[in-house]
Amino acid sequence: MALLEILHYPDPRLRKSAEAVAKVTDEIRRLAEDMLETMYKAPGIGLAAPQVNVGKRVVVIDVSEEKSSPLYLINPEIVHREGTEQMEEGCLSVPGVFDLVERSERVTMHALNLDGKPFELDADGLLAVCIQHEIDHLNGKLFIDYLSSLKRQRIRKKLGKREKPQRQVL
Ligand code: NI
Predict the structure, then answer these.
(1) Which terminus of the chain has a lower count of CB atoms within 10 Å, N or C?
(2) Is beta strand 118-124 parallel, antiparallel or unpaired with respect to 99-112?
(3) Separation of 168 CA from ligand 1 center, angstroms?
């Protein structure tokens, strides 16, 4: 396994839509395991392949406190939604930023597992929020897109600066 580099906003590569996985191969399984290791190390509870610069519809999630219940989602799709709720979200690609986002309270999702077998999952609470957040990543969308443009501008200023070398003041 290997740790992968996580892209940070405003990197334009985070804005690309990811392609469906045609076949769950060893390469996809290795990617998913590397993503899981990277997510645990960060630490985070969800990671989507575009965040590590891979344009494939692969997501890993683990909302358990013991980091013992990894969930691998290949080509995940939400097929049913119910209710709305607000939860404070953060993102490994937008470090240090947390804000309230409104999402569906309960979702039903279809995906493939690492054996390429389809499965269905009903989720609510944190897991439901996490699934919606990660599927957004597959579509080039970030949680800060739900915030006001003023807030987004501030975040862009704050994180955009970090990438540039320090200026010398003489
Ligand atoms: Ni994220």
Answers:
(1) C
(2) antiparallel
(3) 33
The alpha carbon of 169 and the centre of ligand 1 are apart by a number of angstroms equal to 35
Q: Which residue stretches of the chain have pLDDT < 50?
A: none
Owner of token pair 């769950």: 24
Provide the whole-model pTM: 0.93
In a 3-state reduction of DSSP, which class is residue 1? coil
144 Cα–ligand 1 center, Å = 10
| Among candidate residues 12, 15, 4, the one with its CA nearest the CA of residue 138 | 15
Annotated catalytic residues are 134
Decide: residue 142, CB within 10 A, 0-12 exposed, 13-18 middle, 19+ buried: buried
List all residues 6 or more positions away from 68 whose beta carbon is below 8 Å from its beta carbon.
Answer: 62
Cβ atoms 103, 89 nearer than 8 A: no
How does strand 71-89 pair with strand 46-48? unpaired
